[in-house]
Design goal:
The structure holds two protein chains of two kinds. Chain A is of the alpha/beta class. Helix content of chain A is 42%, strand content 22%. Chain B has eight helices and eight strands. Classes of the chains: A alpha/beta, B alpha/beta.
Chain lengths: 189, 189
């Protein structure tokens, strides 16, 4: 198992000027670690839609790398987006899933799967050309450079535990405010 | 659909969108037929609920466009493992009832593979009638949940004159409950 905070820190070290779309637990960890908050798009009040928003950004900004920090519970609510993303095949999109096995932000209810859910397998069947799965931080850190430099869409399943208390939610923006903040950073006021 | 009808026994049959008008022409037990309207994509979730609450077999004719809107239900169904659920996926590659727009990943998505990765214990794929006819006994004789992927030719739009009026879900369910009480528990799964 990988420490969720350590995974986020590793991603932060390699992000460069990538746009980061994050949600739920991953967001709560990410916003305390990120050093380019102006390039972060927080998905708070449109549950499960980080992957779809990330796809839109990746298509709109093909020259910019877009990282989605998704959750397993979130992805299951929007699983069809895997097929939509694979079909549009944005080369600049890397889709990370922090798999903790539950709906952590709503009280830790278990996912409705039979157990042993293979999200990377689902992504591969949906048509992602590159998929990875990690349960060791060392392996993940070793592969991260290759993951971020290669052509996407790339799917990266991280088997995580929240070994540090999750920070509280970041200040909530409306979806419109969040999008305009990123837009401002990209094109200027 | 005629082939499935010949083997339905006392099963409840759920249809939607494109499959609805076709099934009406072949069904010989309309009392056990359910047409859902106005809940786009949710047929698989409703079928799961019916399968869990009934001892009858439940046969669902889902669409590929519908399933993509509710793809996570594959994982939920596999998580609950209803032995009496038979999930037929009618793959025409388009959103036929809204004008024939291609589904994302048309011709590329492997739905059988997705169902397998989600955890369905039995998965079949048919692209010709002969194979379906020769194996339908095995498909419906074994335990569910099973996914049966059927490659069909798209027929855009509904045949005139046999469309049903839109109905409230509460009415549909009340009527179904009354019918089931009249008919008794049916066969044991």
């Amino acid at each position: 198992m990988i420490s969720s905070a350590a995974a986020a820190e590793a991603i932060e070290r390699h992000r460069g000027d990538a746009l980061v779309v994050s949600t739920m637990s991953a967001l709560r960890i990410w916003y305390t670690i990120s050093r380019r908050r102006e390039l972060d798009l927080d998905i708070i009040n449109c549950m499960s839609k980080a992957s779809s928003v990330g796809l839109g950004l990746a298509l709109a900004r093909p020259e910019r790398r877009v990282l989605v920090l998704d959750g397993d519970g979130s992805l299951l609510m929007n699983l069809g987006s895997l097929v939509t993303i694979a079909n549009k095949a944005p080369r600049n999109l890397v889709h990370f899933v922090f798999e903790d096995g539950g709906y952590t932000s709503t009280g830790g209810q278990p996912l409705p799967s039979a157990g042993g859910l293979d999200l990377a397998g689902l992504a591969k069947e949906a048509g992602y050309p590159r998929t990875y799965q990690f349960d060791s931080l060392e392996d993940f850190v070793t592969a991260l450079q290759e993951i971020l430099e290669g052509d996407g869409p790339t799917f990266v399943c991280l088997k995580v535990v929240h070994d540090r208390p999750l920070p509280p939610w970041p200040p909530e923006l409306t979806a419109r405010e969040a999008v305009y903040r990123v837009r401002e950073a990209l094109v200027g006021g | 659909m005629r082939i499935v009808e010949g083997h339905r026994g006392g099963a409840l049959v759920i249809t939607c969108h494109s499959s609805r008008p076709v099934w009406r022409q072949v069904s010989r037990d309309e009392e056990m037929d359910i047409f859902f309207t106005g809940c786009m994509g949710k047929e698989s979730s409703l079928a799961l609920g019916l399968a869990l609450s009934s001892s009858r077999k439940v046969i669902l004719f889902d669409g590929d466009g519908s399933l993509l809107m509710n793809l996570g239900s594959l994982v939920t169904i596999a998580g609950r493992l209803p032995e009496n659920l038979y999930h037929f996926l009618v793959r025409n590659g388009v959103y036929a009832t809204t004008g024939g727009q291609p589904i994302p990943g048309q011709g590329k998505v492997d739905f059988a593979g997705l169902a397998r990765e989600a955890g369905y214990p039995r998965v079949y794929e048919f692209d010709n009638l002969e194979d379906l006819a020769s194996r339908i006994g095995e498909v419906l004789g074994g335990r569910g949940p099973v996914l049966v992927s059927l490659q069909v030719e798209p027929e855009v739009g509904e045949p005139p004159g046999i469309a049903l009026p839109r109905r409230r879900m509460a009415e549909v369910f009340a009527e179904l409950r009354a019918r089931l009480e009249r008919k008794g528990a049916g066969e044991v799964r």
